[in-house]
Specification:
The chain is α/β, with parallel strands linked by helices. It has 12 helices and 12 strands. The chain has helices at residues 14-25, 41-44, 56-66, 79-84, 86-107, 140-159, 185-196, 214-226, 247-255, 269-277, 285-291, 299-310, and strands spanning 4-7, 30-34, 48-50, 70-73, 110-116, 163-168, 170-172, 198-201, 209-213, 238-239, 243-245, 262-265. Strand 5, helix 6 and strand 6 (163-168) form a beta-alpha-beta unit. Helix 3 packs parallel to helix 5, helix 5 (86-107) packs parallel to helix 6 and helix 7 runs parallel beside helix 9. The protein is globular and about 55 Å long. Residues 78-79, 116-118, 168, 170, 178, 181-183 line the site of 2-amino-3-ketobutyric acid.
Length: 317
Amino acid sequence: MKRIIVTGSNGQIGVELVPYLREIYGAENVLATARRKVPGTVSEGGPFELLEVRDGKTFSELIGNFKADAVVHLAGILSARGEACPQESWDINAGGCFTALECAREHGTAFFFPSSIAAFGPSTPADNTPQDTIQRPTTIYGVAKVTGELLCDYYHLKFGLDTRGLRFPGLISYEAMPGGGTTDYAVHIYYEAASKGKYTSYIAPGTQMDMMYMPDALESVVQLMEADPSRLVHRNAYNISAMSFDPDQIAASIKKVIPSFEISYDVDPVRQGIAESWPNSLDCSAAKAEWGFAPKYDLDVMTVDMLERVKGKNRNS
Ligand code: AKB
């Protein structure tokens, strides 16, 4: 990658990936795009343009004018929010992905697609979920993710487009709040622990989900996009995860730093249902073998860093 366009730049991943890419490739070589201009590093630390990802004409013009050689397509609606607006979610997530791929095809750019653990469903083996397995998700978000994976494979096979993707687990970070996801509790808990010393979880004890700290996620995107294409067998999309825990285990990790911390439960049936349909833990061996995936943060190391970073910050979502 030399000149990169990022969509959905104001989201949880975008606000950190854009500065990270600008650091590596030069600020002038990373064009951030989003539906709204928000003051801050994304819109002020380098080139920025407004873009609605279903507007293929503007999207294609931006790629051409910027002379981009890679599209990192992050724009989308997360799982829990998607269940409240399935039609819009499909339109933005699947329709937006198709439009983005078409624009990438017109210009022959490389293409990154963030899939998710949501691409799996209740009939998928839940433990050590294989790279290649049953994918029958029961959320509209998951259906769009499987569609995106298949479309990316199709564009690679049919048009030779250099498509690559990751199945992200829940991502934990402190720069921007995730909005409308099922795994968001694992971010909220740190804010509440630091500010109130307690947290009420909408996910039930015993519900294991894969997770990863944002620095590992950012590194993985660049590692995959820079990987030797001859080694990539799977492409769309690789299982990646750095840890798997349930609410009691993350609470126990927080208690090592804040011994008085308390967790209680008020389970949300929608998000609980989604969480139960997802894997407990992924097998990441394909990512390790094909492009050297090697996350650095485990739960306790992440907890120490997160609690330090969110100190004095307000949770506003
Ligand atoms: C969500 O919870 O919707 C996302 C995801 C796992 O894709 N964080």
